Amino acid sequence: MNWAGAEMGHPHDHSHSRGASTATGMHRRRLLLVLAITLGVVVVQLVAGLVSGSLALLADAGHMFSDAAGLAIALIAAWIAARPPTDQRTFGLQRAEVLAALANALVLLVIAVLIFIEGIHRLQGEAEVQTAPMLTGAVIGAGANIAGLMILHGAHKESLNVRGAYLEVLGDLVGSLAVVVAGLVIVLTGWVQADAAASLAIAVFIVPRAWSLLRDVVDVLLEATPKGVHIDTIREHILSAPGVEDVHDIHAWTITSGVPVFSAHVVVDDSVLGAEGMDRVLDRLQDCLGEHFDTEHCTFQLEPASHREHEPEQHA
């Protein structure tokens, strides 16, 4: 019989995922505020873009609308993720946040392609652009984007969804500045293709940001080892605990932003288990992992050394 992990006969609670807020949920108010600002600017830029005939401004408005949609999705996903676990979904619906981030990344890529195609078409022809409404909409957008970045600053390091929103707002700022530059070029030189060139610059800027977000989302969905977590180092720390002879079946993954998970099978000398019991050994392992690694949900399966031959190793 195995000596089970933290949940079996152990008075301490080593699992903190139940009831813990996800990273996105903790910053819900910030997202709501940025959403309100973004929607207001979308309306302003859409009207200004239609009046001025500026593709770059319409592209920026479209990009900001996708940001607003992404923020709304992220907020809904955060609400869904906060629902309690059930017997059918033992981690609840926390992965909903990751799926929302995936949707954001895909929408960004689609918008970038559409803007690029239209920008190429505009470069090949002449288009009338009214610079006054174009510059007005762009300046308002830039100011709103700066405010959004200030609101989300810091929180973007804790959540994929907040990071996605932060990157989108940053892209909007660059887009608004590109529109301002294009407007000034048209005013000073009369080269109306500057508008199309600015729209192409916006599309090019969107792609690497969307790709980076998509790559991180895929890592979470494929349950890759979280960034900054080194399995070899964790193994060394566990093996350094008194009485530990071996460790195998190590797994480290992420349920959603801010919710890392770790599990391992730990082989312990029979005499240590007999003298100290599971509680003391589990406490040492938990303290060791908590001291060196930011992992709240840990599960250790303790195995007496005499039982080692009955535990075939399947993983790292």
Q: Care to describe what's here?
A:
- This protein has 2 domains: 23-221, Cation efflux protein transmembrane domain (Alpha-lytic protease prodomain-like), CATH 1.20.1510.10; 231-310, Cation efflux protein, cytoplasmic domain (Alpha-Beta Plaits, 2-Layer Sandwich), CATH 3.30.70.
- It is built from 9 helices and 3 strands, in the order ααααααααββαβ.
- The chain has helices at 23-26, 28-52, 55-81, 96-123, 131-152, 160-189, 193-221, 231-239, 270-292, and strands at 244-256, 259-268, 297-304.
* Record field, number of beta strands: 3
The low-pLDDT segments are: 1-20
Order of helices and strands: HHHHHHHHEEHE
> In terms of structural class, how would the helical and strand content be classed?
mainly alpha
CATH topology title of the largest domain: Alpha-lytic protease prodomain-like
Shape: elongated
Number of helical runs?
9
* Radius of gyration, taken over Cα atoms and rounded to an integer in Å: 26 Å
Level-2 CATH architecture of the largest domain? Up-down Bundle
Q: Mean of the pLDDT scores?
A: 79
Q: Largest beta sheet, briefly?
A: 3 strands, mixed
Report strand %: 5-15%
Keywords:
single chain; 316 residues; mainly alpha; Alpha-lytic protease prodomain-like; Alpha-Beta Plaits; 2 domains; three-stranded mixed β-sheet; elongated
